[in-house]
From TrEMBL:
<feature type="binding site">
    <location>
        <position position="59"/>
    </location>
    <ligand>
        <name>Fe cation</name>
    </ligand>
</feature>
<feature type="domain" description="Quercetin 2,3-dioxygenase C-terminal cupin">
    <location>
        <begin position="146"/>
        <end position="231"/>
    </location>
</feature>
<protein>
    <submittedName>
        <fullName>Redox-sensitive bicupin YhaK (Pirin superfamily)</fullName>
    </submittedName>
</protein>
<dbReference type="InterPro" id="IPR012093">
    <property type="entry name" value="Pirin"/>
</dbReference>
<dbReference type="InterPro" id="IPR041602">
    <property type="entry name" value="Quercetinase_C"/>
</dbReference>
<keyword id="KW-0479">Metal-binding</keyword>
<feature type="binding site">
    <location>
        <position position="103"/>
    </location>
    <ligand>
        <name>Fe cation</name>
    </ligand>
</feature>
<keyword id="KW-0408">Iron</keyword>
<feature type="domain" description="Pirin N-terminal">
    <location>
        <begin position="6"/>
        <end position="119"/>
    </location>
</feature>
<dbReference type="InterPro" id="IPR003829">
    <property type="entry name" value="Pirin_N_dom"/>
</dbReference>
<dbReference type="InterPro" id="IPR011051">
    <property type="entry name" value="RmlC_Cupin_sf"/>
</dbReference>
<dbReference type="Pfam" id="PF17954">
    <property type="entry name" value="Pirin_C_2"/>
</dbReference>
<dbReference type="InterPro" id="IPR014710">
    <property type="entry name" value="RmlC-like_jellyroll"/>
</dbReference>
<feature type="binding site">
    <location>
        <position position="101"/>
    </location>
    <ligand>
        <name>Fe cation</name>
    </ligand>
</feature>
<comment type="similarity">
    <text>Belongs to the pirin family.</text>
</comment>
<dbReference type="GO" id="GO:0046872">
    <property type="term" value="F:metal ion binding"/>
</dbReference>
<feature type="binding site">
    <location>
        <position position="57"/>
    </location>
    <ligand>
        <name>Fe cation</name>
    </ligand>
</feature>
Length: 233
């Protein structure tokens, strides 16, 4: 079964300094039909205005992934990490038993556009942790590059979750396929462009939710950037 959710069906919030689309119920947006998918709990597509950001706040028992699309995101946390996250980097923060952090756009003339992703942890109460790695466009071109996994396979960041995350760039005749376990769930989020997912056309912001499927096939891309999640059912 494949279910498509269109971009415009997502929740939306405009706070002035922050414009955010919510794929699942979050903050002031609540839809009982979209509380998450498998152990994927949050995908927020955020645009942070120049000179603005999220002040210091806390998290616990959640795997948080930041995927920057344009601009840069400045990160500072209670573990002592002070990092800048540019496009192409994947940042993983394991909140564990508690962490405080802030995220800021220090650019005076540029919006930061990024995806904030939350995945429920495999183990609760662990020590908080941080990891950040760069994945070049060449690594993602015409393929699904593993960027996050439970065991850090193939140079991916390591998540404390029963989940894998792939990223890919597709245009023209480029295609890719991925074998799926029908007992698990898969979630495809099209970041930008156009792409066919098992024959279904998606445009930027759309998502496809797959259950009971054994194969994922991507093709007919037009300047497409996509994230694919392999998730606990």
């Amino acid at each position: 079964m494949l279910q498509v959710r269109k971009s415009q069906e997502r929740g939306y919030a405009d706070h002035g300094w922050l414009r955010s689309f919510h794929s699942f119920s979050f903050a002031g947006y609540y839809d009982p039909a979209y509380m998450g998918f498998g152990n994927l709990r949050v995908i927020n597509e955020d645009r942070v205005a120049a000179g603005a950001g999220f002040g210091t706040h806390g998290h616990r028992d959640m795997e948080i992934i930041s995927y920057v699309l344009s601009g840069e995101l400045a990160h500072k946390d209670s573990m002592g990490n002070i990092e800048s996250i540019p496009p192409g980097d994947v940042q993983r923060m394991s909140a564990g038993r508690g962490v405080m952090h802030s995220e800021f756009n220090h650019k005076a003339d540029q919006t930061t556009h990024f995806l904030q992703i939350w995945i429920e942890p495999k183990e609760r109460g662990i020590a908080p942790g941080y990891e950040q790695k760069q994945f070049s466009d060449a690594e993602k071109r015409g393929t699904l590059r593993l960027v996050a996994s439970p065991d850090g396979r193939d140079g991916s960041v390591t998540v404390n979750a029963d989940a894998r995350l792939f990223a890919g760039l597709f245009d023209g005749s480029e295609t890719a396929s991925l074998a799926l376990d029908p007992q698990r769930k898969s979630y495809v989020h099209l970041v930008r462009g156009e792409l066919e997912v098992n024959g279904q056309k998606l445009v930027g912001g759309d998502a496809a939710m797959l259950e009971g499927e054994s194969q994922l096939t991507l093709g007919a891309g037009k300047d497409a950037e996509v994230l694919v999640f392999d998730l606990r059912a």
